[in-house]
Design goal:
- The complex is a heterodimer of chains A (70) and B (105).
- Chain A is mainly alpha-helical.
- Chain A has one domain.
- Chain A contains 4 helices and no strands.
- In chain A, helix 2 packs across helix 3.
- The N and C termini of chain A lie far apart (30 Å).
- In chain A, 14% of the residues are buried.
- With 105 residues, chain B is mainly beta.
- Chain B has one domain: SH3 type barrels (Roll).
- Chain B contains 2 helices and 5 strands, in the order E-E-H-E-H-E-E.
- The longest helix of chain B has 4 residues.
- In chain B, 20% of the residues are buried.
- Classes of the chains: A mainly alpha (70), B mainly beta (105).
Chain lengths: 70, 105
C-alpha cells in the first residue's frame, strides 16, 4: 500500500517520517513496524484517503473472519 | 540530476559556518544538539527539494543547497571525553547556515 501510494506520486517518505516522529512518546518502545503502521494510518487519514475508524473496522472484520474458521 | 536551485550557493569547501540556533515548530530536519554550533564545510552535496516541505506534502521547490559540515566533537558536547581530534560530519541545508563569526567556537 505504501509502495502503491509512492508509485502514484500520492505520498512521500518524508511525510511518513514526519508522522513516525509525531507519534506519542508512550509508543516509542513499540516494535518498528507497529509504529510504522500507526504512522501510516495517520498519513492516510490526513490525506483523506480513508479514516482510522474504517481501517479499524476492517481489521476487526478480518479478525472475526479468521477466528471463525474451523 | 538534482533539480535547479533558485539561487547560487553561498558556501565553498573550507568555509566556516554556524548552524542557526532557532527552534521553529514543525518537522525540522536538524538535530537539536547541533543548533548554534560551528564547523567547516567539508563538501557541497548538491541541491535537493526541501525535505521539511516534502514532509507536509508540498513539492519542496526551489531546491535547497546541501552541505556536509564537519564539526569537532569537543565543540558540540558540554563534556566530551573522547579524543580531541574526533569529528562529526552532518549534512545541513543552506537555509540553516550563516558564515561563522571569527571568534565563534
Amino acid at each position: 500500500m505504501v509502495g502503491a501510494l509512492r508509485a502514484q506520486g500520492l505520498s512521500r517518505v518524508d511525510e511518513l517520517r514526519r508522522h513516525i516522529e509525531d507519534l506519542a512518546p508512550q509508543g516509542y518502545d513499540r516494535p518498528y513496524f507497529e509504529r510504522w503502521a500507526e504512522a501510516f494510518c495517520d498519513l492516510l487519514e490526513e490525506k483523506g484517503f480513508t479514516s482510522r475508524a474504517e481501517i479499524e473496522a476492517r481489521m476487526a472484520a478480518m479478525k472475526a473472519e479468521i477466528e471463525a474458521r474451523p | 540530476m538534482s533539480p535547479a536551485a533558485a539561487s547560487p550557493r553561498r558556501f565553498e569547501s573550507g568555509d566556516r559556518v554556524t548552524v542557526a540556533y532557532t527552534h521553529p515548530p514543525g518537522h525540522r530536519r536538524i538535530p537539536y544538539y547541533i543548533r548554534g554550533k560551528s564547523g567547516l564545510v567539508e563538501r557541497y552535496c548538491g541541491a535537493f527539494p526541501n525535505p521539511e516541505e516534502l514532509a507536509y506534502g508540498f513539492d519542496g521547490l526551489p531546491a535547497r543547497h546541501l552541505y556536509r559540515v564537519r564539526f569537532q566533537q569537543i565543540d558540540i558536547w558540554p563534556v566530551y571525553d573522547g579524543k580531541a581530534h574526533n569529528t562529526l560530519d552532518l549534512e545541513v541545508y543552506e537555509h540553516r547556515l550563516s558564515p561563522a563569526k571569527e571568534d565563534a567556537s
